[in-house]
Specification:
nucleotide-binding, alpha/beta, EC 2.7.1.-, UDP-N-acetylmuramoyl-L-alanine:D-glutamate ligase, Carbohydrate kinase, 11 helices, Ribokinase-like
Length: 322
């Protein structure tokens, strides 16, 4: 499997085999398009792990699901991208599900039937980065254990975080805000949607708040309006790549995947941990993320790009000047 395209000065860490660990929920998306139901493997962290695998990045996914047909589908799906699974559930359970209702504009609304315990801690030795997010990072009882795992990581491991908030499935706004700020204190890279930001902090100031907690890069996505990447010293807007949207399932996860891949392969973990990123850096990695998201929304379901698809799309476009 080929990896995503590297720059001429790509750091050695991008290609020396160190895996990325992704932690979070797996589920089955039951997609309702005007009464026509289809079933797809899903879950925000699963989509990120699957997307990284499709880009040729060694990936381990710590998750839980049932020993049932849906669980078998999850195993096959992840195996098709070369993702290694570590189970974090100790008891018999059913595989979680989410019903996604697709609107006329391609947007998706969700209803969930989900459990998340995280009773078995995954092995984290030799990983270069850990990504956490969504229900797995915020829903008890598993969320406290995920946070403890993140806070115990060595300082040279990059942590990325996407709250991907589902209000019906997480604690109160205040409790969730405290959790998010704890993650931001250890995660140099935080990505969230404008809807996440508005729910967490209705009075605004989200990038500044999370940077003050300890994050070094905060990316806020706004669908077709693009995304804005913030550091202490710079703010860069990255336009969305024009595309005809079939549905938005997995769009934010594809953006997160592209952002992680671009950071690891173009900038390097050590640089993100130790240096202030320049506007040109933000424009470059934000563009990769935007292109990955555009490819995903151009087809049904959470199907992120392969390395070859992303390389072709990047060769046909260039980031806007920072």
């Amino acid at each position: 499997m080929t990896s995503i395209p590297l720059s001429d000065t790509a750091p050695a860490s991008a290609a020396d085999g160190h895996p990325i660990l992704v932690v979070g929920e797996s589920l089955i998306d039951i997609v309702d398009r005007g009464g026509e139901l289809t079933r797809h493997v899903g879950g925000s962290p699963l989509n990120v792990a699957f997307g990284l695998g499709r880009l040729g990045i060694p990936t381990v996914f710590a998750t839980e699901f049932g020993d049932d047909e849906d669980g078998d589908d999850i195993v096959r799906h992840l195996a098709s991208a070369g993702v290694r699974i570590e189970r974090t559930d100790a008891a018999d359970r059913r595989t979680s599900s989410a019903r996604a209702l697709i609107g006329a504009d391609g947007s998706a609304s969700y209803e969930f039937d989900l459990e998340w315990d995280f009773t078995l801690t995954p092995v984290v030795s030799d990983v270069i980065a850990v990504h956490v997010g969504s229900i797995g990072a915020l829903r008890p009882p598993g969320a406290d254990r995920v946070l403890a795992l993140v806070e115990a990581l060595p300082e040279d491991v990059l942590v990325t975080f996407d709250p991907n908030i589902r209000p019906a499935l997480v604690p109160s706004r205040q409790e969730t805000r405290v959790l998010v700020e704890h993650y931001a204190a250890r995660a140099p890279v935080v990505k969230l949607s404008d809807e996440d930001a508005a729910w967490l902090y209705p009075d605004g100031g989200v990038p500044e708040r999370l940077l003050a907690c300890g994050a070094r890069l905060v990316a806020v996505t706004a669908g077709a309006e693009g995304s804005t990447l913030h550091t202490e010293g710079a703010t860069v807007h990255v336009p969305a790549r024009p595309t005809r949207a079939i549905d938005t399932i997995g769009a934010g996860d594809a953006y997160m995947t592209g952002l992680i891949a671009a950071i690891v392969s173009r900038l390097g973990v050590r640089r993100v941990l130790a240096e202030t990123l320049q506007p040109a850096d933000l424009a470059s990695i934000g563009h990769v993320a935007a292109v990955a998201a555009s490819i995903t929304v151009s087809r049904a379901g959470a199907v992120p790009p392969t390395a070859a698809e992303l390389e072709r799309a990047l060769s046909d476009s260039a980031p806007a000047p920072a």
